[in-house]
Amino acid sequence: xxxxxxxxxxxxxxxxxxxxxxxxxxxxxxxxxxxxxxxxxxxxxxxxxxxxxxxxxxxxxxxxxxxxxxxxxxxxxxxxxxxxxxxxxxxxxxxxxxxxxxxxxxxxxxxxxxxxxxxxxxxxxxxxxxxxxxxxxxxxxxxxxxxxxxxxxxxxxxxxxxxx
Length: 164
Known about the structure:
With 164 residues, the protein is of the alpha+beta class. The protein contains five helices and ten strands. It starts with 7 loop residues before the first helix and ends with a helix. 29% of the residues are buried.
């Protein structure tokens, strides 16, 4: 589905969740299914005590993924928050990649944590899954559907923001 507004089906899917926690659990499942369908070995930690939601096993190394979502429109894009409990930032010792799902258009952004956390942590971004009308505002488009990042090492991912 594409377009600037929530489609009827997407709106119904969001309305059936009573809490943001339930919606977050659904989005984690969506991420795990999408990653597994691309051949990744997906691991789900037991409980809620870790800073990441999902791990990807590649050759004995783990990529720690924090799954986020956004459905609120901000101009030509959608807001996605990258804080723990809407208060505290994550750290590079906890997360390697953020997987941000733009719910109304069913689009994933896989962004190295270093891009969001360095040089100082960003609390949120506006993601523009439509045509980029201002290049400086759409600096994250090359992370749209960037599934190949899940197979990168932590050191490769940590260097990502230095190449931008």
